[in-house]
């Protein structure tokens, strides 16, 4: 799971180097270096381990936060290489993501596990909402896919409304965010791949803190939030600095990725 998520970022960084290759030749070299690493080392290693010698996906994890990261990986590998195989896999996974986002009153909710994958593999399905500790890891990647035009503006507005209406709640002394993406309230919703309704429920996780909000990239959804609540809370929580911030990690990433 960690490798899927980490290499999603590597592919994105490699594409950023490619975009800047006309600025300085070193960026072209960096893009080539990381493309070679991803295809000849990362992908090759997992093909050997899984025995999957062709086609995609090579590896997959049926949890939503690594799943969307895998989708981002194939998106940026397509932009980096131009290979239609990456594009086809990205588009297939985007279809699963769209079915996983369950509409409710203009927003979306979703489960921690991508049950469509578990159903295909005859694994017991779980209908618990995704906990707050993982929703930011999903939402920040979904924001990236939205900025890239892979997810529609209406979809992104719905995801932003999920954060603004269902999750942001500072009326409790125990935290400023609900413990899961469903606002800790059960709901009976239609599941497209099952063609029937199921009851989604809260896993009972602790509420999110200011530190949770600051460190998980939730603020990236502000442009799609018509209520302005996400931007308002982001400014307030950044000022409060209640935990980690993402800025230092961004600096380390930029320096560390240059070969």
Total count of helical runs of at least 4 residues: 10
Global outline: globular
Runs in which pLDDT lies below 50 for 5 or more consecutive residues are: 242-252
The main sheet comes to:
2 strands, antiparallel
Mean pLDDT: 90
Query: Helix and strand string, N-terminal first?
Result: HHHHEEHHHEEEEHHH
Please list the strands of the largest sheet in the order they lie side by side.
1-2
Taking the alpha carbons of the first and last residues, their distance comes to 25 Å
Portion of residues within helices: 55-70%
**Class from helix and strand fractions:** mainly alpha
What's the alpha carbon Rg, rounded to whole Å? 19 Å
Strand segment tally: 6
Q: How much strand?
A: 5-15%
What does this structure look like?
The protein has 259 residues and is mainly α. The protein has a domain at 101-256. The protein has 10 helices and 6 strands, in the order ααααββαααββββααα. The protein has helices at 2-19, 25-50, 64-81, 84-100, 115-120, 132-147, 153-167, 210-215, 229-240, 247-256, and strands spanning 102-104, 107-109, 168-172, 175-177, 187-191, 196-200. Strands 1-2 form a two-stranded antiparallel ribbon. A two-stranded antiparallel ribbon has the order 3-4. α1 packs antiparallel against α2 (25-50), α3 runs antiparallel to α4 (84-100) and α3 packs parallel to α6 (132-147). The longest helix has 26 residues, at 25-50. The radius of gyration is 19 Å and the shape is globular. It starts with a helix and ends with a helix. Residues 242-252 have low confidence and may be disordered.
């Amino acid at each position: 799971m960690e490798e899927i998520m980490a290499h999603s970022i590597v592919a994105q960084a490699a594409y950023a180097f490619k975009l800047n290759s006309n600025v300085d030749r070193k960026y072209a070299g960096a893009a080539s270096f990381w493309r070679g690493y991803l295809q000849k080392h990362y992908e090759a290693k997992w093909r050997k381990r899984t025995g999957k010698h062709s086609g995609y996906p090579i590896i997959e994890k049926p949890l939503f936060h690594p799943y969307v990261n895998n989708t981002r990986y194939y998106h940026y590998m397509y932009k980096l290489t131009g290979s239609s195989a990456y594009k086809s896999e990205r588009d297939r996974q985007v279809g699963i993501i769209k079915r996983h986002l369950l509409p409710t009153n203009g927003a979306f909710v979703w489960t921690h596990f991508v049950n469509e994958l578990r159903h295909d593999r005859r694994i017991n399905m779980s209908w618990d909402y995704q906990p707050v500790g993982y929703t930011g890891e999903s939402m920040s990647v979904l924001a990236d896919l939205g900025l890239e035009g892979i997810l529609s503006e209406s979809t992104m507005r719905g995801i932003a409304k999920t954060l603004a209406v269902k999750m942001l709640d500072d009326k409790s002394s125990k935290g400023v965010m609900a413990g899961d993406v469903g606002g800790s309230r059960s709901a009976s919703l239609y599941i497209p791949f099952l063609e029937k309704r199921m009851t989604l429920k809260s896993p009972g996780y602790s509420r999110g803190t200011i530190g949770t909000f600051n460190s998980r990239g939730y603020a990236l959804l502000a442009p799609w939030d018509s209520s302005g609540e996400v931007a308002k809370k982001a400014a307030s929580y950044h000022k409060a600095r209640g935990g980690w911030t993402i800025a230092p990690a961004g600096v380390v990433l930029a320096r560390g990725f240059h070969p």
